[in-house]
Amino acid sequence: MNRSKKSHPLKFLSLFIVLIITSADFLQAQESQLFRLSEGFVRISEAGQLSDTLNVWGDVNAPGRYIVPRGTTVHEILSYSRGAVQQRVAGQNIDWNKLRMEVSVSSFDPETGRETVRNFEYRYNEPYPEELRSMRLRNDDIVAVEMKRSPAFIDWLRVFSTVVSATATTIIVIDRLSD
Predict the structure, then answer these.
(1) CATH class entry, domain 36-156
(2) Exposed/middle/buried for residue 81 (C-beta within 10 Å: 0-12, 13-18, 19+)
(3) Above 80 in pLDDT, residue 120?
(4) Residue 31's pLDDT is what?
């Protein structure tokens, strides 16, 4: 009888330890799922917080579908998507002052059935557009980012060398076939 009293607290203690270990693993798994739900699907807003779902496409480092707090602005969603893609030519960084970022925000109004697209242009050496900073995004808006730059000398050289090479090859082939 004395022996069963001793084993009874041991059973509770071992059960308690098993529950603590499994619940810690469960909580850790829940926490890791809070932000990156799957590839290209990211939760920024806290659970229980009013939120909108936005799409970010184009030349950003992390395009995808974002669950963000209601009232998120365009520059905030661009920050969540880790900014514009770094453009490179021939292994060298491009001068950011020569780059132009075009941002299009597409909103669908279910009441009218119309799609509205607002376009913004931003150069890195100019002040950030105020209307882009203050524009609040709504549920299911699509933010598309495109980075543009003026062609550099190397771009023109690549096009020119390809055309010259193709023309020279054609002339040589025609000359060989005519003999």
Answers:
(1) alpha beta
(2) buried
(3) yes
(4) 43
Task: At 19, list the tokens.
Answer: 């529950």
**Domain residue limits, the chain:** 1-32, 36-156
The amino acid occupying position 31 is E
For residues 91 and 105, give the distance between their C-alpha atoms in angstroms, rounded to a whole number: 32
Three-state SS sequence of 87-110: CEECCEECCHHHEEEEEEEEEEEC
Coil/strand/helix, residue 48: coil
- Cβ–Cβ < 8 Å for 147, 99: yes
DSSP state of 139: T
Beta-carbon contacts of residue 106 (< 8 Å; ≥ 6 apart): 115, 116, 117, 141, 142, 143, 144
- Are the CB atoms for 58 and 76 separated by under 8 Å? no
Output the pLDDT for position 93. 61
State the Cα–Cα distance between residues 51 and 70, nearest whole angstrom. Answer: 5
CB atoms within 10 A of CB 40: 13
Reported as a single tens digit per residue, the pLDDT across 87-101 is 655 555 666 667 888
Number of helical (H) and strand (E) elements in the chain, helices listed first: 4, 9
Q: Please count the other Cβ atoms lying within 10 Å of the Cβ belonging to residue 103.
A: 22
Q: For tokens 């950011």, name the residue.
A: 96
Q: Checking DSSP bridges between strand 99-109 and strand 114-123, what pairing results, if any?
A: antiparallel
